[in-house]
Amino acid sequence: MRIMSSSVTARARQWTTWGPVVAALVLGLAWGRELPGFAVAIVVICLFAAVLSAVHHAEVIAHRIGEPFGSLVLAVAVTVIEVGLIVMLMIGGGDKATSYARDTVFAAVMITCNGIVGLSLLVGALRNRIAVFNAEGSGGELAIVCTLATMTLVLPTFTTSHPGPEFSAAQLAFAAVSSLLLYGVFVTVQTVRHRDYFLPVPRPDRGIPESEDEHAAPPTARDAWFSLGLLVVALVAVVGNAKLVSPTIEDAVASAGLPKAVVGVVIALMVLLPETLAAVRAASRDRMQTSMNLAYGSAIASIGLTIPSIALASIWLEGPLILGLGPLHMVLFVLTAVVSALTVVPGRATLLQGSVHLSIFAAFVFLSFSP
What we know:
Elements: H1 2-13, H2 15-30, H3 37-65, H4 69-93, H5 100-128, E1 131-132, H6 135-158, H7 169-193, H8 221-255, H9 261-271, H10 273-284, H11 288-313, H12 327-344, E2 348-349, H13 351-369
Antiparallel strand pairs: 1-2
């Protein structure tokens, strides 16, 4: 009993344990109140503490259950809470929130497919000259991302049953059901039928073991459940505190005369910080497939779970639901799809591919602020 008590006390002293708890307490105290400048600064600090804690606890869970389940846990957890954030913004945003779902989902696709993939490839190539991953698994993930994005973000611009870049009720229901079913197939293939396609590529010459697990002993089941609980708390704190600072972001965007789509981009950047940090850390350990799983898996979850949820929420939400992309973003999406295919097919990438993806991501961010 004394050993168990000392173990719990040691864990309680770690900042990754109290960080999410403090962030959640700040969220509870600040929710529904007008925040002065110093309070916003405190919320931002708690936000980043929760992000770093989420990465740590996701890695503990991933080490316990192995790949690809570990990256799937983080991707799904963040996306589920991201859906709640989008719905909250749409409820309180009025007419200006009609395109929040589109802006946030498309930003998530560009961040994951270009920002996270590009940064991971850059880190992996700088470490080992060549970043190696499984082309079968990554190619399948990319195909699902392109299919889901085209069905939900591109087609509404060209359909004629409803005026504007919107789906009719029947089309929205079809897109939602199709997205959910395709996501279910992806999870089944990734975790059961072809699990080996999504495991890190063994590289004995670089010190990567044949097993997908690290040499260190995995954490106990109790530690994994403890981390799972703190991961949920951290993710709730991330999205909740992001919601708290979103009015400040909206005011800053409006006062600067920037497009309202910038709000979705900034919020997506904050919410996807856990996946970004986890993917970069995996790449630095020469586990590029884990990075690819995190990037493409997050994009798949972002579309496959968000669109059905928003479609269901639109039953009681007032106003139109704008999903169709404009010409500028459509060009960026096509460019991303083509470049990603050229990157994934060989199963090997260098500094060049990472730089190309990061340049596309930089163009997306710049054109979001200056269309």
